[in-house]
């Protein structure tokens, strides 16, 4: 990240990237549900809710910064970063939704007899739910890197005034000086 970008904007983008990383981490850390190897439906639904809330947050912020872009060159960069985060979070949400769908299919209905076509179908569904979660994590990580890359697009921060100028001596007194006793 650029050290010359305004720190508030840099921190803002780092927080957005961190949220994407958290969405991905949570996807791969989903505990198994009642059926071994099948992600817990309730945990997946909560992750879907979190992803949807993050999508809304990014959409609101992208819209806000687009409105401010004429007056603030950094706002256009932030709008782009929020749009990228929103796109990636939507992809993560889609993969989480696929995992929920597969988890529900694996855990509902009558149990299949071992070795039957129905048992093989459930095994593949469980496997694909894990693949969907891995994909969600991969897209979240890629999104976090994409958002972090926007920092380099931020306009340079104005140079700071030299330290000596900040502590200039007070002007000399022009009136008579008083002596202390």
Key terms:
mainly alpha; 181 residues
As a percent range, the share of helical residues equals 55-70%
User: What would you call the shape?
Assistant: elongated
Q: Taking all residues together, what is the mean pLDDT? A: 86
Q: Structural class of the helix and strand makeup?
A: mainly alpha
**Pattern of helices and strands:** HHHHH
How far from one another are the termini?
59 Å
Radius of gyration: 26 Å
Low-confidence residue ranges: 165-170
Strand tally is 0
- How many helical elements? 5
- Strand content is under 5%
- Biggest sheet statistics: none
Structural account:
The chain is mainly α and 181 residues long. Helices cover 67% and strands 0% of the residues. It has 5 helices and no strands.
Summarize the topology.
Blueprint: H1 7-28, H2 41-68, H3 73-107, H4 117-149, H5 163-166
Helix pairs in contact: 1-2, 1-3, 1-4, 2-3, 3-4
Question: What's the gist of this structure?
Answer:
The chain has five helices and no strands. Residues 165-170 have low confidence and may be disordered. It has 181 residues and is mostly helical.
């Amino acid at each position: 990240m650029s050290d010359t970008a305004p720190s508030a904007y840099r921190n803002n983008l780092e927080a957005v990237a961190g949220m994407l990383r958290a969405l991905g981490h949570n996807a791969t850390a989903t505990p198994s549900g009642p059926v071994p190897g099948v992600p817990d439906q309730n945990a997946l639904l909560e992750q879907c809710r979190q992803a949807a809330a993050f999508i809304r947050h990014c959409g609101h912020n992208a819209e806000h910064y687009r409105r401010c872009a004429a007056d603030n060159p950094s706002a256009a960069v932030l709008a782009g970063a929020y749009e990228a985060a929103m796109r990636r979070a939507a992809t993560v949400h889609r993969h989480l939704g696929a995992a929920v769908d597969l988890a529900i299919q694996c855990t509902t209905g009558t149990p299949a007899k071992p070795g039957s076509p129905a048992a093989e179908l459930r095994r593949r569904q469980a496997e694909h739910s894990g693949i969907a979660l891995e994909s969600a994590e991969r897209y979240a990580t890629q999104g976090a890197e994409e958002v972090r890359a926007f920092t380099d697009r931020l306009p340079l921060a104005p140079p700071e005034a030299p330290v000596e100028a900040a502590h200039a001596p007070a002007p000399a007194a022009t009136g008579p000086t008083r002596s202390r006793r």
